[in-house]
Write a structure and sequence with these properties.
The chain is 35% helix and 30% strand. By secondary structure, it is α+β, with helices and mostly antiparallel strands. The strands form 9 sheets. A 6-stranded mixed sheet has the order 2-3-1-4-5-6, with helices on both faces. It has a 6-stranded antiparallel β-barrel with strand order 7-8-14-11-10-15. A 6-stranded antiparallel beta barrel has the order 16-21-19-18-22-23. α12 (433-453) crosses α13, α16 crosses α17 and α19 (590-597) crosses α20.
């Protein structure tokens, strides 16, 4: 359960949100000079109801809607404020729709300024509000009627907030198992250096720990921290905090920056997201439309490619490919809002479905449409993992892909049932059982195809097979070893074949091959070359090469080069003769070896080098010695 709760105020301009916060907490969230002068909230403000509850006051004026987005991106519960004298207004509806898009689960409603109207009018406003929130997370929630001028109803609101935990324990990604925070303010303080503020949206971290700061990708140290104006030793999810960072200048970590205790996040410019359009007349999203994205504490321009249609109308949703003009730090299942480029108007929001979506548009669309149809977060993760096929996630890469700690990923996926962790050499992968089985079957199918197309070849080259199945080289080697251990394939140096595969020669081909072996056997170590033997047998040199290759694979013939071929039988006898020679001699000269092998120097030298290669002899000066 979260130890701190973030409560977000939402509503139309001048409906009294800031005044309500001030009376509840005794703190004025209008901290900027121009805010006080103009009587409106320009930037997000924070006040503390107690040590566990932070209230975020966000601007209601349309011009400052992007700051409002920053304020409610990661809140636990909402307070929707409606002024009794105005009723539901345009920004009331917009803020409410934004709360729904960002999947806020809980909240209450306040009708403010009840001192300005009569009871009958209040009842009309209440009916209007109930109609607005019908079918949403605010349906049937408490409606408090207050007056900040006369101090009516505020104690009831405060009691309600203090009595509620607003826990989101059921949310799978409420805590990603690692520390994470977007920066909404950054400044330098004399004697301290760089200080940033933000809301901890995941995990925890202790003072003194290392933090990775993006987008500059700097490694910094958390020197000290404050929450609710008190020094603390540890930050936890839900904390509204100020962090004093050592090792980074203010200019390198401004609003929109991102902090994490694991180096698994990155700045992303292309991603897949499910986008939903608000339920308001006149709203739509066209193919390739240029729009504003509000992600974390950043605003960035980008374009969308809708995967399933050409246009999204009000209340519709679809998965889209997003291309940002400037990269921002985001991760799997992060939420965001979208606004028209000009004039600026909120039209919807979305959730990140995947941060890796490169390739042909047809392939991206196919992948995206399958992904968006997965119902739960765990099912989406499972689909993404299986889509890796021959390029499975290492522990490091899977954390980056999902923006979660490995332990949290294990919890989400229930690894005991569907997954297996594989280790080979220095690598460690996480794969589904189906993913592994499917990849092994792909290897087997490719070998079968090769055997079918090349019945006279003893196997497919490992490199060639790897290119066909498209795989990480180390994982491919591991998979081949697995198939060998299961007695499904056989590997001979760089050749791979199925265990039960044999080259089937015709009876006439067998006879010719036997004749070749007979000729080479009689010629010892002074054999004829390919062309000479082919002419002798009156067959083509290509056909002869094929039969010799097969005989070599069957260990009947040994080939040193195109001019020196000999039988395995003769080679075994030669090795025995060489060993007999060494039983009475310490060293072997080329001349001595010529006599043993009954061959010329032309063949003796490569034969000796072959014996060296086979670790039967070794060279010392101009002589050979027995290994």
């Amino acid at each position: 359960m979260k130890e701190q709760i973030i409560v977000g105020m939402a509503g139309h301009i001048d409906h009294g949100k800031t005044s309500i916060v001030k009376l509840l907490t005794g703190q004025n969230t209008d901290i900027l000079k121009q805010e006080k002068e103009r009587g409106m909230t320009i930037d997000i403000g924070f006040a503390h109801l107690n040590e566990n509850i932070t209230i975020v006051d966000v601007p209601g004026h349309e011009k400052f809607i992007k700051n409002m987005v920053t304020g409610i991106s990661y809140i636990d519960t909402a307070i929707l404020v409606v002024a009794a004298d105005d009723g539901v207004m345009p920004q009331t509806i917009e803020h409410f729709e934004i709360l729904k898009i960002l999947n806020v689960k809980k909240g209450i409603i306040i009708i403010n300024k009840i001192d300005l109207v009569d009871e009958e009018w209040i009842d009309l406003v209440e009916s209007e509000i109930k109609e607005l929130v019908s079918g949403s997370f605010l349906e049937n929630q408490d409606i408090f009627k207050v007056s900040t001028v006369k101090g009516i109803g505020l104690e009831e609101v405060k009691t309600r907030l203090l009595a509620s935990s607003f826990s989101n324990d059921g949310e799978l990604l409420n805590n990603r198992g690692l520390f994470r925070m977007y920066v909404d303010r950054s400044f330098s303080q004399q004697g301290f250096g760089t200080v940033v503020t933000g809301t901890v949206i995941s995990g925890k971290i202790k003072v003194g720990s290392t933090i990775y700061a993006l987008p500059q990708n700097k490694k910094v140290r958390l020197r000290s921290a404050q929450s609710h104006y008190k020094d603390i030793d540890q930050l936890k999810i839900g904390y509204r905090a100020a962090l004093n960072l050592n090792g980074i200048d203010k200019k390198d970590i401004e609003r929109g920056g991102h902090l994490s205790n694991l180096n698994v996040f990155d700045s992303i410019s292309i991603f897949l997201a499910k986008i939903s359009i608000l339920n308001r007349d006149g709203l739509s999203l066209r193919q390739n439309q240029r729009i504003r994205f509000h992600i974390g504490t950043s605003e960035v321009i980008g374009r969308i490619s809708i995967c399933g249609r050409n246009i999204l109308e009000k209340s519709e949703s679809d998965i889209c490919l997003i291309k940002l003009e400037v990269p921002v730090v985001l991760s799997f299942q992060d939420k965001f809002l979208i606004r028209t480029y000009s004039p600026m108007k909120t039209i919807g929001g979305g959730v990140v479905e995947d941060i890796n979506c490169f390739g042909k548009w047809s392939q991206v669309k196919e992948f995206a449409n399958e992904l968006v149809n997965k119902n739960s977060v765990a099912e989406k993760m499972n689909f993404i993992i299986q889509s890796q096929s021959g390029f499975p996630f290492t522990i490091e890469k899977i954390q980056s892909r999902f923006g979660m700690s490995y332990d949290k990923i294990v919890d989400c996926l229930n690894l005991k049932k569907e997954y297996v962790v594989l280790e080979y050499l220095s690598e460690k992968w996480i794969v589904t059982n189906n993913q592994l089985d499917n990849f092994l079957n792909r290897i087997i199918d490719e070998i079968k195809k090769f055997h079918s197309k090349n019945p006279y070849r003893g196997g497919v080259l490992k490199k060639e097979l790897n290119q066909k199945v498209k795989s990480d080289e180390v994982f491919f080697d591991f998979s081949i070893k697995l198939l060998i251990d299961k007695n499904i394939v056989v590997r001979d140096k760089e050749l791979i074949k199925l265990e039960n595969f044999k080259i089937n020669l015709s009876s006439s081909e067998i006879k010719v091959q036997e004749k070749v072996v007979e000729i080479l056997d009689s010629q010892g170590f002074s054999s004829q070359n390919y062309i000479e033997i082919a002419n002798l047998l009156n067959i083509s040199s290509d056909k002869l090469k094929l039969l010799i290759n097969i005989a070599e694979q069957d260990s009947k013939i040994i080939r040193i080069n195109e001019d020196l071929l000999f039988t395995h039988k003769n080679f075994i006898k030669l090795v025995d003769d060489v060993k007999k020679y060494f039983s009475t001699n310490d060293k072997l000269s080329v001349a001595d070896f010529k006599d043993i092998a009954k061959t010329s120097r032309k063949y003796a030298v490569p034969l000796l080098e072959f014996l060296d290669k086979k670790n039967i002899t070794y060279r010392e000066d101009n002589y050979r010695k027995l290994v």
